[in-house]
Amino acid sequence: MHLFLLILIPLIGALFLILIPEKHQSLIKWTSAFFGLFGLALSIHIFFVFDKSALGMQFVESIPWIRSFGINFRLGMDGLSLSMVLLTSIIWFTGILVSWDLQERVKEFFIYMFILVAGVFGVFLSLDFLIMFVFLEIAVIPKFVLIHVWGSGKKEYSAIKYTLYLLTGSAFALIAMMMIYLQTMTLDFTQLATLTFSAPFQKIIFILLLIGFGVIIPLWPLHRWTPDGHSSAPTAISMLLAGVIMKLGGYALIRIGIGLFPIGAAFWAPLIAVIAVVNCIYIAFVAMVQKDLKYVVANSSISHMGYVLMGLAAMNTVSLTGAASQMFAHGIMAALFFALVGLIYQRTHTRMIADFGGLAHQMPRAATLFLMTGLASLGLPGFYNFVSEFLIFVGAFKTFPVLATMAILAVVITAIYVLRVVQQIFFGPRNPRWDNLKDISNVEMIPLIILVVVMLGFGIIPAPMTNLIDQGIDPIVQHEVKGSL
Amino acid sequence: MDQFAWLIPTLPLAAFLIIVALTYRFKLLSAIVATSFSLGSLILAISILIQKIQNPKTTETFINWLTITANQQTVLTLQMGYLIDPLAAVMCLIVTLIATLVLLYSIGYMKGDEGFSRYFAYISLFTFSMLGLVISNNYFQTFVFWELVGLCSYLLIGFWFFKPEAADASKKAFITNRWADFGFLVGIIGLFTVFGSFNFTELSAVIGLHQNTLVLLILGLLVFLGPMGKSAMFPFHVWLPDAMEGPTPISALIHAATMVAAGIYLVARGYILFASVDSVMIVIAYIGGFTALFAATIALVQRDIKRILAFSTLSQLGYMMMALGVGSMTSGMFHLTTHAFFKALLFLGAGSIIHAVHDQDIFNMGGLVKKMPITVWTFVIGSLALSGIFPLAGFWSKDEILTVTLQHHFTGLFILGTLVAFLTAFYMFRLIFIALFGDKRSNHHAHESSWTMTLPLLILAILSIVAGLVNTPWFYQWTGMSFSTFLFFKEPEIPVIHWSIAGLSSLAALGGIFVAWIIYAKQHISADKLAERFKGAHTLLLNKYYIDELYGWVFNKGMIGLGKVFNFIDHTLIDGFFDGTATLIRSTGIQLRLFQTGRLQQYALVLFVAIAAMTIWGVR
């Protein structure tokens, strides 16, 4: 019952929140934190009871759902899903803590957030395409409201842009799903894995999935919802968006695209590799010239997801393990980035880089944490991001030596824009304009410390996480090897 | 003893953690922790070196840090471990020795600084990273610690982050090194892809079979980019002079004696890779030689005491690289060793002077010899050693390099090397005659520094005098071994003195000192008039050949420009297209809405017209 429970926790939490009157703000927050902690504890518990040596799905649970169509509510978990579930619960919990100072419509905020998280858990645990699709929509829709109501800046534009992009993507995925169903009369991943599809069919399905899920990753040139969406969203929602939602695309593409349609994937792999390079390099250049801090971070997220695409394109165990690792590592790192930007914005009410300078005098804690996050983002050894990037590069170099080399160039450009931002915000002489700013308080440090510890911990001892992901990835790759014979 | 080798880097790491977690508020305690733990590493390094001298057997131990399995087979293993051979043992000694002396010195130098504990934490982290690099048994681990020393360098150059120049310099150092490390990273990934391993021992076994192949040429050059960045070879040299914005003891430890030497060390460590392709070796030799001359010429005209020393470091690193490139690993490493001592001495001496004068411009110093005799005389010893004056350490190592250059038929590089020896002696004694002797050039109140600062100077001065002896024929006759035979690569090299070469290089060095004496001590020739006469050349040198300006232009016009173009594409073209599509759909919807008015008469009219049209069409 572990997996059902995992999806139910945020839903039950949302129910509880509905029952609490709006005026008891602190009770709402404590209840949210309790459910968040419960979810985190459960996923850590699963991490320890999960059998890392056995291959394949574990904790499989099935309830017949739409009998006449042969659709079952099947959930299961392998190392890949588990790593993503851990990521989600970490960011969920820390996101609740980061939203502690929220004043406006607190109750609805957390309810929408909880529904979103339930959807995300559902996507990572589904063993049926239809179920996954439904959960995907559940994860995507609440975000519209969250950006529209609690956002900042040109939030209406950003919210509708986000929604239109993602729903258009869903339409492509939906077409692919219906084509698969008409061909096989099942959407169950386990059953689909036993079937072989003709090469032309695989090619069509894969490109539909690539567009559909690629929007979420996001894939150039379908990436434009990201900078506006991130920048307008409230802090915790940016954390979830960059930390988790963007990973849904990569996850679904590995699980369905590469896992079930290997010939199609192999056919389109060179295209993915080229787009990966564009994502890495082009967006890094775009990030370099942004004037708004949150836009820098948002663009950096797109650039970093380019590494994930590179890992997907190479389609071997090393590169895919790297890609999934990068999804985890980037999720933590992006959450930390957005949390810090949020904390600084909350104090200064500006995000324009030019307004800052010398902030390390007033906010040494923020400076230290921001620098650490920046170093993680530029792939410094010691952080898990380095491990995953290294795995991607090693894996990708085998298949696409030239394109992989070009993608590696992004580590230089990332260093340029990250260190530039660090210098412009934190270094330099003391700026009296910010003299009465308070540094991050001890309480506010809690979620940040959690994220830093995860990032550094797996950076120094990566084997528990990479082995876990490897356990999930390898059967997918082996199936692909068999499928292409 | 080797089984304790892992403790050498672990002790400074422990010091770092203790300072960060416990003693951050207690400044002096932080310093004591850092210094004593480093001393512990030094004692371990000495005992390991002694043991290696008695029994020069290589020991290797590692753990599998990360493995990826595919279909029950291991496809990737990343190791963390240590490889202790004579090369690593020597380098461990240099790093721990200089680190301990610099830490001791810093207690006095950094007194009263707000970031006192932070400073000692960073140095401990640096020492850990540097030692992790030195004892590494594979390219992956080397890369990891390579990046970490780069981080420490960034943190320490920008230690006074409130100074805009320091913040700029630290960023410049990191990014310049990133460009180089990009090549290094691609190179080692390529090595793994082709040969299936990162391990030095395993690689050397297979690389030998692929001598002079194209793939090794490419990979060798890519990997060499890393050392070019770290050791600040042309065209990556721009970061090192700017790195002088950091506290001076840092310049001594990181930017003179140890980290910048890591590039040399890596070439020595991976020597089989580079030596297996002749053209790679030639590239290494000429880049080294060119950097040696290029930097020495810039040093002739600089006014900032630390920058003169920085360009001198560049030049000497070029010397070492040239030695490695012409095919003599031992002479390069020998010069690295002696240079570490006398260059650390010079920087610490410069620090002592700056501490007393509160200025870095040599034309604001002068008349220091009576005020701070220990600093001045140890500085002179360091300069004599650097100039290669018999029988100081630099004489032996420089002579060795010139000898092997000639022996391997690089006559051009030999002449260049001798010229550099002349220039080196000249710019060092220009500095000495202007800054240390003569009249007071400004209203400074210099005084000798405290014992924690002068003791390291004295120890390093003694080492700068005697360290060269370990590679002399006399030492070989006496003990039956020498630096070269201990560190040998392929065939043992027994030290011999070539009197003609030694005479020539000594003549060049003495000539340099003499010219400096004529111009700056006796003032028989006016330096200003010389500068006036060769105005073009002087301006060119003063502006460091305008390379920083060139890079700045490329960055601002090229890269920022490209960023703006891409940003335009994002905002105008892509957004324009998708937003336009959305608008089109919306307006189409608005237009189509006109057809659904809900008025029955209209529908009936359309129906009637349609039926009429169909009837007419059908009849016809």
Write a compact overview of the structure shown:
Chain A has 485 residues and is mostly helical.
Structure description:
- The complex is a heterodimer of chains A (485) and B (620).
- Chain A has helices at residues 2-19, 25-49, 79-98, 106-125, 129-150, 155-184, 189-194, 199-214, 225-232, 235-260, 262-288, 293-314, 317-348, 359-362, 364-377, 384-399, 401-408, 410-426, 442-460, 463-483, and strands at residues 58-66, 71-77.
- Chain A has 485 residues and is mainly α.
- In chain A, strands 1-2 form a two-stranded antiparallel ribbon.
- The model of chain A has no long low-confidence stretch (mean pLDDT 90).
- Among the domains of chain B are: 277-529, no CATH class; 568-619, no CATH class.
- Chain B has a two-stranded antiparallel ribbon.
- In chain B, helix 3 packs parallel to helix 15 (329-357).
- At the A-B interface, helix 6, helix 11, helix 13, helix 16 and helix 17 of A face strand 1, strand 2, helix 5, helix 6 and helix 25 of B.
